[in-house]
UniProtKB/TrEMBL annotation:
Belongs to the NADH dehydrogenase family. Pfam families: Pyr_redox_2 (PF07992). It comes from Paraconexibacter algicola. SUPFAM superfamilies: FAD/NAD(P)-binding domain (SSF51905). This is NAD(P)/FAD-dependent oxidoreductase. It comes from the Bacteria. Residues 418-450 are annotated as: Disordered.
Amino acid sequence: MAWNVVIAGGGFGGFAAARTLERVLPKHSARITVVTDQNFMLYTPLLPGAAAGTLEPRHVVVPLREELREGTDLRLGRVTSADPAEKTITVQSVHGRSEVLPYDQLIVALGAVNRTLPVPGLEEHAMGFKDLPEAIRLRNHVIRTLEAAESTEDPSERAAWLTYVFVGAGYAGLEGLAELQDFAADVLELYPRCRTHGIRWILVEAREQVMPEIQRDLASFAETELRSRGIEIRTSTTLEEVTADTARLSDGEVVRTRTVVWTAGVKPAPVVAELGLPLGKGGRIEVDATMKVAGVDGVWAIGDAAGVPDPARKGEACPPTAQHAIRQGRRVAKNVAAALGTGRVRPFTFKTKGVFVDMGRYQAVASTMGIKWRGLPAWWLARTYHLMAMPGTKRRLRLLLDWNVGLLFGRDTSELGRLGHPARLEPPTATSAPAPDTASATEEPSGPGV
Ligand SMILES: Cc1cc2nc3c(=O)[nH]c(=O)nc-3n(C[C@H](O)[C@H](O)[C@H](O)COP(=O)(O)OP(=O)(O)OC[C@H]3O[C@@H](n4cnc5c(N)ncnc54)[C@H](O)[C@@H]3O)c2cc1C
């Protein structure tokens, strides 16, 4: 009899777990099913590049069907609940039906969503930056703000259009802001009034330092780099209120702005609370060092959704990074195989060896094996690392092409906000209704299209 191994979530952790299971489990010993609500893995470290127009959005995702082998079944659907006593999960399938999937071993890798706080006006006026739709919306929004600033006669109104506030200085906030600043600098020559006026970028962080996910010295290194580019960094500062054209900060300043981007942390995907599993700090699933959910038979959890003990910091959970999710995925797969009779269960022991913070063209900071890099060498290292880490030769070549075309020809300023959201077909009017005897002639469209 083949075992049922179900992986909930097809992001960094779930994808790495599936690939490793395909390799380590004896052939035909198990059926591996990945249940996920999108048929691709989003390679988030390249999301700022997609937002800044350096990369084609389709090139920063990994189509799961292409990369998973025949042994793995991909189920597109949304996990809605689980019953650990019955060993089942419930999935809202792509057909709209609710289906119950049994498992012998379950790996929960459902990731995280934006964590919001009760800041007045936040939901109405701020934007997130966590997935592809948000990244593309942000890019379109920045282009629109440049257009609006260029066409207004009022300098104070122009200042508001040209001020961008990012709240939260983790990977998403810092890299997102840096890439968009680079993008704006690149296209500014097309907007003469904006160029004369100048653009203001503000990064707000509640903690004392930026980038809590990485070592302190490297974070200060990144901060110095951003300050030298004219970005205002407000640490130990919080966002107090947002309106359509202002952001009030805890240091008392009311910034006139039309853009507030909220990247202040993440919390586990909401469905995690519906799985009947024990939750720890921050709502992450409680697991031991082997990533097994304590007291629940056959359930493991990894990535941003789980509080995996961090081997590098006693008493703390691993930071929510792709580096950790990938390594946890690989290790948990081996532990699941061990639970099914192949190999040994071992704890998660990974400690970060290198960090890359990409900050736009020729700008990055990096630390690899104790050596710190900045500027062009760091930028080259970061790109090389992502090129190697991106699954699939075809996709690597596409990235390489996008980057090189961008370097040679600059970036595009078309605002394609309506892409995929066309206007509805116009309802028929009295004049467009066909006369009874011409009805058959109008069934096919005629004449040249546009
Ligand atoms: C802009 C940005 C830049 C980043 N840059 C870096 C970086 O440079 N380096 C780094 O190490 N980390 C980076 N991170 C963090 C990194 O993306 C996360 O830590 C990583 O994605 C976590 O992996 P995961 O497998 O836990 O979750 P994810 O990769 O988010 O995967 C979770 C999957 O589960 C799916 N899912 C969610 N809910 C359901 C449901 N109910 N049913 C079915 N499927 C569901 C999701 O669609 C997703 O496919 C960045 C994050 C962002 C937002």
